[in-house]
Amino acid sequence: MSVPATAMQQERPGPLRRLAHVPVVDLVYLAVLFFCLFPYVQLVPLSSYTQPYGFLMAAVLAMLWPGTIPGLPKLDLVLLVYIAALGCVMFSIEFVGTLDMREASFLLSYLTPLVTTAACYAFLRRSPELVRKCVIYAIFAWLGVSVLQYLISPTFLTFLITSNSELGSDIVASGRGVIGLAPEPTHAAFHIILLGAVVAFLGGPLWVTLMALCSTLLVYRSASAILVFAIALLIWGGLRPFWRSWVLGAVVLAALIARPLAQLLGDSTRIGSLMGQLSEGGLGLLVADYSTNIRLAGMFMPIYHAFENYLMPQGISIERWGEIRSEILSQYSWIMDLSFAGPATGWGLFIVQGGFLGVPFVIYGAYRFFGLRGVVLSYLAVACFVVFMNQFYVSTPAFGLVLAAILYSGSRDRSVAAGDNQPPAGNNS
After folding, report:
1. Is 173 helix (H, G, I), strand (E, B) or coil?
2. How many domains, in total, are found in the chain?
3. C-beta atoms surrounding 136 within 10 Å
4. Does some domain include residue 423?
5. Residue 12: inside a domain, yes or no?
6. Does residue 249 form part of some domain?
7. Would you report the helix, strand and coil content of the chain in percent, each value rounded to 5?
8. What pLDDT, in 10s, does the model give residues 307-346?
9. What are phi and psi of 297, to 5 degrees?
10. Is residue 17 a part of any domain in this protein?
11. For 44-100, what is the HEC assignment?
């Protein structure tokens, strides 16, 4: 006996009704994940690139479900709580005097890793397949918007991330790539590298990861992303003796194809022009090009200065950073400029501000990011580490997603080795 269609429609709950039956904790998890995947979307206009909503939702989750943070593996719990406490202490010291909004944003670099990593790790243990699908869909969304910007209008959907209606057009007119859902192409490229890596860490399709990585060159046209891949290859090869000869061969191959690739991309684009100059002038042009110069100097020189000063903590004062910046520029004439807003390096921020107190967290980061097994996964993890060596701070909630995926990947591997197909239910050391 067939059931009338009207009766079936009455029995089938609608989307809003189904949403009402979703547990509140899952809704909060999804909100955290959304802002990890789209960290630049503005609900209200703010001056900063990365929006605070991922951190805020993860903090809400940690307060409503107190077991979220203690659910981290023991080593990660200790180091993430440690760096958060260090940030709070330095912030409290600075708070006694005059407080700048930039100093308040520095605090997020110390607090965000703890809450976002804990939230994403808990969500992965709860619904790994859902998280993997959401990351894949997010990559499609990023690339779909970016391709439409490339084909139709550079300003397509840019109102979601900036109040400047001409930002996308101005950047494309300067010879750079489209911005996607980020404030500028380099941030879009770095973010899509992280998302592609997360898909691989969670056992997703390799072609999705490859598509994400290729978009950094073909869609976002980011020279900084190419620099990340090159530095990551050198570090990755140096850590693996068997692959050193292959890395050397890759460097030689890159030198040979630099000029043809520059011609393919066109001298009118920034990345094509830079690669053409590099093929003709050699590595010296890495410090002759303004943008490359300030990125390399910002990545390494603040750390070098910190070691020159015996890793003494400098605190989060923006005035103190201004003094350090002036000292570096006066001492090294080849540096064209350094950021006024603080050390232009995610990992280096902890070494410059925290000194020897910040070093343990950076060592911990290297231990986690350099510890994955497998050729592809290990290289992608190193590339993610190098992304945060740039002016791409761990205050982005995407850092927590990447670290949680690395932790989950490691725990999954240990479970498989132990003969268990399910992720471990307790803490991991």
Report:
1. helix
2. 1
3. 20
4. no
5. no
6. yes
7. 70, 0, 30
8. 989 999 998 888 889 999 999 999 888 888 888 888 989 9
9. -65, -40
10. no
11. CCCCCCCCCHHHHHHHHHHHHCCCCCCCCCHHHHHHHHHHHHHHHHHHHHHHCCCCC
